[in-house]
Design a protein that fits this description.
Length: 1008
């Protein structure tokens, strides 16, 4: 993995930063402690794996920010990738993964963060733990590889060498072996079952022969009984035909009986109708007389109805004419009223004009007063035109003077307020200084606790990783214990086979296998309980660390608040430093303002101009009140001018009214005469008189008409009886003919019924002479059904036997095939067992590690000799004697391990006894050798080497040796980054990445 570009936003101490790695081979990341050097490298690990030194996920977000974003572009296996990881505070994370194509970056992002993380690991072939244990020497964790347990070191080395693929192959081989073993057991059970079933072939053949003989005998008996049944069925069919014929004749007899009854009822009904008709025909004379009287009354009523219609039309016409005459008279009367009203109004106007003409003398005196008042107003208007601009100019000057005065007063009040505030601040200055010191002490204490909290967090994370590894070991031991206990149970069988080669065991080998298995079981149990004890201790340590982390976190809750408070107090304290000088300036300015306000010597030019305007206005002697009185005098005498115009209009109107009055009086007399003529001589009056004479000539009486209508209603039933008589005359001959027809039909039906009765007697006699074979037929049918069921059972049984014989034949072939399959399956199972052992930890993986370790050891010692002047030497041990009470030196059991022995001039000593500088050189040499080895093998494609704060524990000579070692391996890596805070070391690197920190956060600058 070769870094290309890193873009940060709100990550740890960085707000916004961009770092371009292009062109960098060996570079130094330098800056003071806490500037944010390691945060750049933490950003790379957080972007790719989501891991960092922060305890909580939100801790990577810059203080006061809501979102963090890291954009990292890198090269891996000659392919450029881009990772963008974003997180919102108290929210979720977003991870994007892209690959460069000719058309730009193409997304490889999966469905969710976890899926995308798996895609990233699949492409870069490197997880977080492997990275930090090989190519990344993290700050304060350079000894992490050395502090790992031997088995854990071996796991890390195996993962770097890509040996985990052999674990997959081992698991697949074990799974295939288990499946083949299960298949072999299944085949053995199947063969045993087939062997038992094949023993039934001879008995099955004998049963089939016996069944075939019984089946032939049953078929012969069934044929004889079938012939007997057919003869009886013929006799039964003939008898059934007679029965059906008897039923048909009986049905005909019953139908004829019903017809006779129906004809009898219908004959009675016809006779009843004939009697009713004869009764109506006997009253023919009475009905004819009543009907004639009814017709006479009806003709009289029709004549009265005609008169009624003529009478009604005449009355309606008379009402219409009367309404028309009344309307014409009302129109003339309305015109008369209008003419009289006009005459009255004309007379009223004459009286008003006479009153107006009597006031002409007063109007002439008022006109003289109006002329004098208007001359006075004209003179004052000319003065006003001269004075108005001067008055407006004076108001403007006065307003400016007033505003200047108000500004002085406001400034004086502002100075007083500011003086009070500054005096209060001056009194608070000692309190602010003490408060700043108190807050600074609290912040210093909290910063120490933050450093301690980070150490607690790292320790807790280390313990969690350690517990996860212990849990993995516990699962492995549990699995191994289960396999060993199963192996012991299998060996309890006297005929048990060897678990490895599956060959029979004699007593001696059986005892050796049992002893070896029990010893391995005991050792595994011991290691299992050691792991359990370590897990319990680690759990207790994590609980203690968690409680300590919570306590310190609660104490640090006020850290940000205290920092803000310190900034505010510092700003307030800085503002109080020049309070005394400000108070003196304010006092001098306030004294000057008070004197100006008291003497009134402000704005002198405006006040002089105002005095000149006042003198000129006094000379003009213009008074606005006199002007207003003159205007009101003009308005008071304006009535004379109005009255003069009214007198002229009155004279003109008086002449017009004198000419209009005779015309109105003549019109009124004419309208009164027309009203009298309409009452007597109009067309409508003459038509009304003619209609009155026509109504008298009709002679219509409503009383007589009503009596006649009543008589018609009373005689109306004679009309219904007359219709009934006519209907009876028409129906009587028809009913007599129908009665004769019914009598003849009844006689014919009775004769036919007698014939059918004789046929019924004859058929009943024939049936009595013939025997009924139904019982014999039912008995034979039951026998045949029993025979058929027995025959079906025998045929089904014979079919089953034949099918069983065919199945046994097929089973014989399958038995032979499965025997061959069983042998092949057992052979494959043995092959997969051997493959599982070969792919396991003690097989190919151990062989490859043993082949790699000499090269790793030689490379480490070569680097270590350069770093320590040939004073230090390491040795990798892959096997050691196991600790067992029964084992001796000759038969001691060897166990796999990865111990590292360190020797110096005084001999081999424990790693913990070496000084900090020596320990770092050892760790650094092993890390560099491991990274160089991986780069040569190109297995994990580690092209990046990072050394974080490795020089702090070295003296000047040790630092020079570290730099020389880094330069010596520079050709094996595409990019080497070294982190240091020591100023004199950064000059040893041509490319430098300088990191500074200010109030805006950490800033990065690239120097080449």
């Amino acid at each position: 993995m070769i870094p290309i570009q890193l873009i940060l936003k709100n990550f740890l101490s960085y707000r916004e930063a961009t770092l371009d790695f292009r062109g960098l081979h060996t570079a130094c990341i330098c800056g003071s402690n806490g500037a944010g050097k390691s945060s750049l490298l933490e950003a790379i690990t957080w972007a790719i794996w989501g891991e960092s030194r922060a305890a909580a996920e939100d801790d990577v977000i810059h203080t006061g920010s809501k979102e963090v974003r890291v954009d990292f572009t890198f090269l891996s296996n000659q392919q450029k990738y881009r990772v963008i990881r974003t997180r919102i505070r108290n929210g979720s994370s977003v991870l994007e993964f892209q690959i460069e194509t000719p058309s730009g970056f193409r997304p490889l992002t999966g469905k969710g963060v976890r899926a995308t993380q798996d895609v990233i690991l699949e492409h870069i072939k490197l997880d977080y733990d492997t990275f930090i244990n090989s190519a990344y020497l993290r700050q304060g964790r350079a000894d992490e590889f050395m502090l790992k347990r031997p088995t854990e070191r071996k796991e890390i080395l195996a993962e770097l060498l890509k040996l985990n693929q052999y674990d997959d192959l081992e698991e697949r081989a074990k799974e295939s072996s288990r499946q083949l073993k299960a298949r072999a057991e299944e085949l053995e059970r199947s063969l045993e079952s087939m062997k038992i079933q094949l023993q039934q072939r001879e008995s099955t053949e004998a049963q089939r022969t016996q069944l075939e003989a019984e089946l032939n005998q049953l078929q012969q008996v069934q044929a004889f009984e079938t012939i007997q049944l057919q003869s009886l069925q013929v006799v039964q069919h003939q008898r059934q035909t007679k029965v059906e014929q008897l039923s048909f004749v009986r049905q005909q007899y019953q139908n004829l009986t019903q017809d006779c009854d129906r004809l009898q009822q219908e004959q009675l009904a016809v006779k009843s109708q004939i009697a009713d008709l004869e009764k109506i025909l006997s009253q023919e004379g009475e009905i004819q007389a009543g009907y004639l009287h009814y017709q006479h009354l009806q003709s009289q009523e029709e004549a009265f109805a005609t008169k009624f219609e003529a009478y009604t039309r005449a009355q309606q016409t008379r009402q219409q004419k009367q309404q028309q005459l009344s309307k014409q008279i009302q129109d003339i009367e309305r015109q008369l009223q209008q003419a009289e009203a006009q005459l009255e109004a004309l007379q009223q106007q004459e009286r008003e004009i006479q009153q107006t003409l009597t006031k002409s003398g007063d109007v002439e005196a008022g006109l003289a007063q109006l002329t004098a008042a208007r001359q006075r107003v004209a003179h004052l208007d000319q003065l006003q035109m001269q004075v108005a601009p001067l008055i407006q100019q004076r108001a403007t000057l006065q307003s400016q003077i007033d505003r200047f005065h108000a500004g002085l007063v406001a400034r004086l009040e502002q100075l007083t307020t500011t003086e009070n505030q500054l005096q209060r601040q001056q009194h608070r200055q000692p309190q602010l200084q003490q408060a700043v010191m108190d807050v600074a002490i609290q912040i210093e204490e909290l910063e120490k606790k933050r450093v301690y909290l980070q150490r607690v967090q790292e320790k807790g994370q280390e313990r969690r990783h350690f517990i996860e590894r212990l849990q993995a070991h516990q699962r492995d031991y549990e699995k191994l214990l289960g396999e060993l206990e199963q192996k012991l149970q299998m060996l309890q069988n006297p005929n048990a086979l060897c678990p490895l080669c599956e060959r029979p065991l004699d007593e001696h080998h059986w005892n050796r296998v049992i002893e070896k298995t029990e010893e391995e079981l005991k050792d595994t149990q011991g290691q299992f309980w050691v792991v359990r004890e370590q897990m319990a201790v680690s759990d207790r340590e994590i609980q203690v660390l968690r409680q300590e982390y919570r306590d310190i976190s609660q104490q640090l809750a006020t850290y940000d608040t205290l920092r803000e408070q310190r900034g505010q107090l510092a700003a307030q304290l800085e503002a109080t430093s020049d309070v005394q000088q400000q108070l003196q300036q304010i006092a001098a300015e306030r004294q000057h303002l008070e004197r100006s306000l008291q003497l009134g010597d402000y704005a002198p030019d405006k006040q002089a101009e105002l005095r000149q305007l006042d003198q000129y206005l006094q000379q003009l002697n213009y008074n606005e009140q006199d002007h207003a009185l003159a205007r009101s005098e003009v308005e008071r005498w304006r009535w004379a001018e109005i009255k003069l115009q009214q007198i002229k209009d009155a004279i003109k109107r008086q002449t017009q009214l004198a000419a209009r009055k005779p015309e109105l009086e003549a019109n009124i007399a004419q309208l009164k005469q027309r009203i009298q003529q309409e009452h007597t001589d109009s067309d409508c009056a003459r038509e009304i008189a003619a209609l009155d004479r026509h109504i008298t000539e009709l002679g219509y009486s409503s009383e007589q008409h009503n009596q006649l209508r009543l008589a018609v209603r009373q005689n109306q039933p004679w009309q219904l009886r007359h219709q009934q008589m006519l209907s009876a005359q028409q129906q009587y001959p028809q009913l007599q003919m129908r009665s004769q027809e019914l009598a003849a039909a009844k006689t014919a039906r009775l004769a036919e019924r007698q014939t059918l009765a004789s046929q019924i007697d004859s058929i009943q006699q024939q049936l009595a002479e013939t025997a009924n074979p139904t019982a014999q037929i039912q008995a034979l049918e039951q026998q045949l059904q029993a025979r058929r069921r027995q025959l079906d059972e025998q045929i089904a049984k014979l079919g089953r036997l034949e099918q069983l014989a065919a199945q046994l034949e097929t089973m014989q072939n399958q038995y032979q095939q499965q025997q061959q399959q069983l042998q092949a399956t057992k052979q494959q199972q043995r092959v997969y067992q051997e493959l599982a052992q070969a792919f396991g930890k003690n097989g190919i993986q151990a062989l490859m590690i043993e082949n790699v370790l000499p090269q790793l050891e030689a490379e480490t010692n070569q680097l270590l000799s350069r770093l320590s002047a040939n004073q230090l030497h390491v040795q990798f041990i892959t096997q050691k004697a196991g600790k067992s009470s029964k084992s001796t030196k000759k038969n001691a059991k060897l166990i796999d391990t990865l111990d590292i022995l360190i020797a110096d001039a005084r001999g081999t000593r424990a790693y913990e006894t070496y000084s900090g500088g020596e320990a770092f050189r050892i760790n650094f040499a092993i890390r560099l050798a491991l990274a160089k080895l991986l780069a040569q093998r190109a297995g994990a494609a580690l092209q990046l080497l990072i050394v974080d704060e490795g020089f702090g524990t070295q003296d000047a000579e040790g630092c020079d040796r570290l730099i020389a070692a880094i330069n010596a391996i520079a050709a094996d890596f595409a990019c080497i980054l070294t982190v240091t805070h020591m100023p004199h070391l950064k000059e040893a690197f041509q490319a430098r990445i300088e990191v500074n920190k200010n109030q805006q956060g950490s800033q990065v600058r690239l120097l080449i």
